[in-house]
Amino acid sequence: MIGGSPACADRASFAAHAPYILLAALLAGDILFMTLHWLHLHSTVLRSELWSIERDGSFGEMYQYLKYLGVGLALAHLYRSTRLPVLLGWIGVFAFLLLDDSMRIHERFGLGMVAWIHLPDFGGLRGRDLGELIFAGLVVAILAPVLALGYVRGSPASRALTADLSVLLAALAACAVGGDTIHRLLSGTALNTLAGMIEDGGEMIALSLTSFYIAQWVPYRASTPEAVRFRPGSRLLTLAFARPLSE
Questions:
Q1: This prediction's pTM
Q2: Which residues, 6+ apart, have CB-to-CB distance to 162 below 8 Å?
Q3: pLDDT digits 0-9 by tens, 180-213
């Protein structure tokens, strides 16, 4: 056998399996933090608010920050090897999400809207909740044209990345914004705990899937989109238009 071939084969095998190992580890972490959160709410074992995934600065929140940082670094590594301009845009998106999550920008905006135009409470939602929804709408209005332009003018790899990350971002937003709204409406009811778990636990799982997705691209350096197996956005568009994005 040619010298070095077994080592190369081992490295290739590890590179192919590494994203799945990462996904399993991240999901195990998600389940662990959700379990600790449940114990915090329903037992006297974990009384500190640091065990609540709903609280700012909690252990679960810090875990999310590490994921955002990992996604950003992986995208930067991918850009370094591919020079795809669309990756710079996505690095900016996840950097903003990290800042928003850690600095509570959307909550500050909601409070600012209440103080500025005196948003009233409506249908079980507080004025600040409506302000946060306005903030989410503004972010979507800014991001959508930029992402659409990157998709239309991009290479097959750029289009695949944009389509897939857009779907994963939509899933994250559905949990963060939609889940938060439902959680507010169900606050004080028997479904409050479940709604909170769907909101924050859903965010954790969506970000874990995003981390897994980016990890798939790293070994291929974005040169072969068809080699990436988990492609949620690409699959949806393939079903819609009956042709793969890499064509």
A1: 0.85
A2: 86, 90, 147, 150, 151, 154, 233
A3: 778 877 877 878 888 889 989 999 999 999 999 9
